Amino acid sequence: MTLIAALCLLLFSAPVSGAQDGSPGSVPDSIPEVLWRPQRGESPRYPQDLIIGSLARGNVSDGARLAAGQALAALVAGNRNAAVFSRFSAASRNELFSAVAVAEPRKYRVGEGREEADGSYSFLVRFMGRERGIAGELYIRFEPPPEADSAAGTAGNGAWLVDDLLLDEQRPLGEFLEESVYDLPPYERLF
Length: 191
Hints:
By secondary structure, the chain is an alpha+beta fold. It has helices at 2-13, 33-36, 62-77, 90-101, 147-152; strands spanning 48-49, 53-54, 105-115, 121-129, 132-143, 159-167, 171-172.
């Protein structure tokens, strides 16, 4: 009996030859590199959110995208004194934070941004809590320094401020729209 147990132990503990560990000399991967590496002329593929669509950067400036992220992070954290909300009065700020707090957000997503006709930038956004979520559209605008500062010779750089945030009704996380915005990426090669 002990001989059989020793043989089984030896059989199952022997190293497997030809394992794919990625080290030189190992068996090559099943998908050639030319298929998984993007080729010249291929457009990049970005992840999709089922509610707000593409999470691509869009045609926006780096400052606007950074300000959108700062505003959403402040909304999730409950930071009512964030500089990006300085355009709002205290009552408007409380109303905005209360509307977002209904979903009890734990994280957020920023969708593809675009430039509006009036010079502001808009982003589709989504707040996700443990059980509920809320989506909407965030508007960001660059405010140049006041003329008094530039006339006095002080170097004011201006600031990105939240212009508006339009929110949809909150919904449970498992509930999606009737027609899905999700679009499978096109296949460029057949395996």
